[in-house]
Design brief:
The chain is about 75% helix and about 0% strand. By secondary structure, the chain is mainly alpha-helical. The chain has a single domain (about 15-470), classed as Orthogonal Bundle (Hydantoin permease). α3 crosses α4 (about 75-85) and α8 (about 180-210) runs parallel beside α13 (about 270-300). The longest helix is centred in the first third of the chain and has 33 residues, at about 95-125.
Length: about 475
């Protein structure tokens, strides 16, 4: 039949190990840093609803399809797509899906590592009690000035950002070099549950703040006007595109990360059950992060649309005021960094797996090579927050974005949804039904299969297509 039974890179030791690893990939900065930032910037409730709809109607079917591709191909996304295109009797051009995924992974990791570096930098800051001073300040203005000055001190200093980015990449490369069970699996086993517990404690704190209900209201009050008309009367589809892009980003979809993890799935693990567990965990963490951050935002008179610094300017206030805040804060940023690592390894893995499959490189060498390339691209993001903050490479096209903004936009809002779209087309329309049902271990007549297939064949392409057309202004 042309497909292998096991991957040369090894396998997860169990179904649970796969769930933990895939959840490790999905849960990361996307949930805790990016989701609240985007929800805040796009008016709250309506963004959250569109995001949840994208997760349920597009994300869930696509994650199942992507894991299935990996499980069938048993190789890096580039080689899996080659094998599967051949098996389906389709053109070898489908390999391009693997290639664009590798490029997207490099680009994402280049900024992801810099932001994860912020989380690392906050560990000693919290441990040293820096934010305990917040408790002694009398006005909310003093408090917000204090935290934003601390944040700007960090992001304004390229050397410091570079140091943390370098540290983050060294550890990421070391973990990927360790291989499937040795490196990846060991790291995620205990940290997911720990992160979840700390988040629950923080929700408890947020509930004790006077503006908890304002935060809840902001997150769940559906006001489409705010989403579609962010600047008054001018219609914009950008918010919906951001919500869809975030759904892909948060679930690690559309670039092969989840596909390569699927390649290490034991033969008889149920794809539907495992992926559903991953999607639920990921969504829950994002919602919890919002429930923690927005009450703190409103209690302290901060701006929900404060941008990428939102989490770093709100949570330290909470840690500065709550009992055991120094301990909780340190623990929180340690866990955030770990969550970022477990996502980062999945961003690097598709490229490394492919290099190993060429037979020319050992895993450690492949990991180091890719890591150095990503590290270099990371300079663009580092400088976007300081010496190049006024450099807008596409300003001649009236695009007011820094390098960081551009890389983020290009990957989340364009590359990942397009990757998801092509995955949906390939699995939904081009693969043989018998192979798909065999890998999913499902009968083609079962209701679950039929719903999934419908969502993948029609809803995903239409949804992604419409959101794209909308965003480029076709309907306005
Ligand atoms: N899902 C990760 C997060 O939410 O932080 C980020 C990510 C990992 C995106 C892997 C894409 C990916 F392939």
């Amino acid at each position: 039949m042309g497909t292998q039974n096991t991957s040369i890179h090894g396998e997860w030791s169990s179904r649970l190990a796969f769930i933990l690893a895939a959840t490790g990939s999905a849960v990361g900065l996307g949930n805790i840093w990016k989701f609240p930032w985007l929800a805040g910037e796009n008016g709250g409730g309506a963004f959250v609803i569109v995001y949840l709809l994208c997760i349920a109607l597009i994300g869930l079917p696509v994650i199942m399809a992507e894991v299935m591709l990996g499980k069938r191909g048993r190789s890096s996304p580039i080689n899996s797509m080659k094998i599967l295109a051949k098996e389906a009797g389709r053109t070898q051009w489908w390999q391009a899906l693997g290639w664009t995924g590798v490029i997207a992974g490099f680009l994402i990791l280049s900024f992801y590592s810099v932001i994860a570096g912020w989380a690392l930098a906050y560990i000693p800051r919290l441990a040293s009690g820096m934010f305990a001073a917040v408790g002694d300040l009398s006005t909310t203005k003093e408090v917000t000035d204090f935290v934003s000055t601390r944040f700007n001190e960090l992001t304004g200093n390229p050397e410091r950002l570079l140091a943390w980015h370098t540290l983050f990449m060294i550890v990421t490369v070391t973990m990927v070099a360790g291989g499937v069970q040795g490196g990846l699996e060991r790291a995620v086993r205990w940290m997911m549950p720990a992160l979840f517990i700390v988040l629950l404690v923080l929700v408890g704190y947020a509930m004790s703040t006077p503006k908890f209900m304002d935060g809840v209201h902001f997150m769940f009050n559906i006001d489409f006007h705010k989403l579609f008309y962010p600047n008054g009367d001018e219609f914009s589809g950008a918010g919906v595109l951001a919500a869809m892009g975030q759904a892909f980003f948060s679930l690690s979809l559309g670039m092969g990360a989840i596909m390569v993890y699927g390649a290490y799935l034991p033969k008889h693990a149920s794809i539907a059950q495992t992926t559903t567990a991953v999607v639920i965990a990921d969504t829950l963490v994002a919602i919890l992060a919002g429930l923690i951050i927005f009450p703190i935002v409103f209690t302290n008179g901060l701006e929900p649309g404060a941008g990428p610094g939102l989490v770093f300017e709100t949570l330290p206030i909470a840690f500065g005021q709550m009992p055991y805040g120094t301990f909780m804060g340190t623990l929180f940023f340690v866990l955030l960094a770990l969550a970022a690592w477990s996502s980062a390894i999945s961003l690097l893995e598709p490229a490394v797996a492919w290099l190993v499959e060429t037979g020319k490189f050992t895993r450690p060498i492949a990991a180091i090579g890719c890591g150095v390339a990503v590290w270099l691209v990371g300079f663009l993001t580092i400088f976007s927050f300081n010496i190049w903050s006024d450099v807008k490479p596409l300003s001649m096209f009236s695009v007011d974005k820094t390098f960081f903004d551009l890389i983020d936009y290009l990957t989340s809002n364009i590359m990942l949804p397009l990757g998801g779209l092509f995955i949906a087309i390939f699995v939904g329309w081009l693969m043989k039904k018998q192979i798909v049902t065999e890998e999913l271990e499902s009968s083609p007549d079962s209701l679950g299969y039929r719903v999934w297939h419908f969502l993948l064949c029609y809803v995903t392409p239409l949804g992604v297509g419409l959101v794209f057309l909308n965003a480029i202004g076709v309907f306005s």
